[in-house]
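Justification of computing resources. Each target in the renewal requires a structure prediction run like the one illustrated here; the chain below, 665 residues long, is used simply to show the kind of job we budget for.
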Amino acid sequence: MKTKPTITLLLLLLMQFTYATDYYISSSSGNDNNNGTSSSTPWQTLAKIKNSNFLPGDRILLKKGDTWNDIFKINSNGTISQPIIVSSYGAGNNPIIDVTETHNNLTWTNLGNNIWSTADVLYNPKRLIIDGVEVLDAAYGREQELGTNIPDLVQWYYDYNTNILKIYSMDSPLNHNLKFSSKPSALNLANDHNISIENIEFIGGYNYCIAISSCSGIKLTNLKVGKYANSGLLMGAYKVNGVNFQLCDNVIIDNCNVDTDYTFDYSQVEIASGVSNRGPREGVLFRGTINCELKNSIVKNYCHANINIFAPATERGGPQLDERVVQNCEIYNNTITSPDIAYGGRIAIDGYCSENEIYNNLFVDISVQNQFNGFNNHIHHNIFKDIKNTPLKPYTTGNAIGLQGYYIATYGNVFENNLMINCESNGIFISGNNSYGDVTNNIFRNNIIYNCGTADNNIGIRVATDFNSYSNHGNIFQNNLIFCNNTDQTIDFYNTIMNITSFNVNNNTNYYTISNNLNNDPLFIDTVNEDFHLQNNSPCIDSGITPTASFDRDGNPIPFPGTLPDIGIYEFQNPLNISENSFINQLDLFPNPIIDNNLFIKSNANEIIKTITIYNSIGYLISSEKVETPNNHYLLNLSNLNQGIYIINIKTDLNNYSNKIIKKQ
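Resulting structure tokens:
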């Protein structure tokens, strides 16, 4: 009797999966009068997709090599088990959705001095292409830059107040091909749910290249985003025509390339207010999001922030604004960089942002400080490398991590096991001078600050003196390592330069907790080649304090079994202390201990083998292999190993085993 409901449920599920259909779209060979259900009878336009109803499990396939010049919208929903999938078919380059458009019928007025103006463009195009080449814009409020070289030539300016577009040109713009975005975005998802989009390039958008609002269950995979667009990808609450969209939930961005392709050199402009306010603004924006992820992606060359996490107050220091929060989001395994622009590229967190986790990212070649405000966020195992001072500001900006209390108080954030290396200003900068909230009860532990302050007096940590009614106080610095090749005076604590020893005795100053910080060389395996694993005599080993994070940057447990937590992004695996006989009665290895190319592993207790990791004799990770089909036995191929002594670590469903092996030639 109990089997009937189960059989009925299985039949219902099978019926659900039966009706999924593939639809094919080709701009080059399609026709909207076709049925669209085969590659030989494709539809042609994106309007056909927008006006059609799709069922859960349906696939919408765009032909590779084709381009569409319209916003992609879909007005159908999938389910959690059967999302609607938007992908590609055929051979060649990924399909392109490009909302830039030629504008050669504008009315131009010659203002003299090679300046031309038109009132025919009623919105700021944000990016301008002349004769197939993008040209540099003047900063907002700095029309006088037109026609100057800084060192690239400034060729256009848009006045928000008058809706006038001006171009610097030796002859009439009518003699040239002008292109700019004709639509606010290239992909717009609003009140859409359970949709997966993959293998497509999106170009243009005078607001955002991709805009997602009031959505859940959205997955974006292997997309190229951002060329000729003002900003890259927006998730969350914002207003359009008075309509306030709600939170985004469970949006996943995976293996995407969010790149402006904006590489102008404007580094020699005079230092003045607003000179950096040009070019594409934000890369990936979290605006009213919960349970969302950005992972395995590259975000590059945005002139304010590559990642902007922002949930504003009604006013700075005021209460929460409507439903805008950013909570329980994860940002991990990404590369965040802006090597080609004079200002920008940071990660910026401000406002009602909490319980977010940011880990295993590489922040490199950025020309402004990474800004971590909000509260109760967890930032760990990131690398902050080569953060630079911008030439556009009269003060230092190359801080790896900055906390300044913009908008609301900044508290309860945990920064642990990060590496800050070769930054022009401080590794960590704390200031309570922004008049919008205290910076307090933030925890810094197990971090390494290595050769930072290279253009700022070699200061690794700066805690600034307050000069208003808000302050920084009660923050915690424990078990960090701050090292500089040139000096041991690496701390600026309330305008007093000091070494680590003096810093440690400032415990309880302004309610700070300061203890067990080190100033030794961390002894990385190979700093020049960026191998930041620890040598077996590193002072970081067993010198950490128990972190919130459970795994290091390699995915190894913290601490390594039988040891204490380490300082830095990698736990030292302590292979030299492993017993030769630790496998006895638990695992069989054949041959053992001398092996040739193959090693057979079998559990005597029928434990399931899940992961096998190999280290060399000084603890350097050689390989880590997940067993695709976990079982109680496994044949491991070691033909790629050179002759020598290695440590093998075998993780099962119940235990973690380690032993030495000898690889012969």
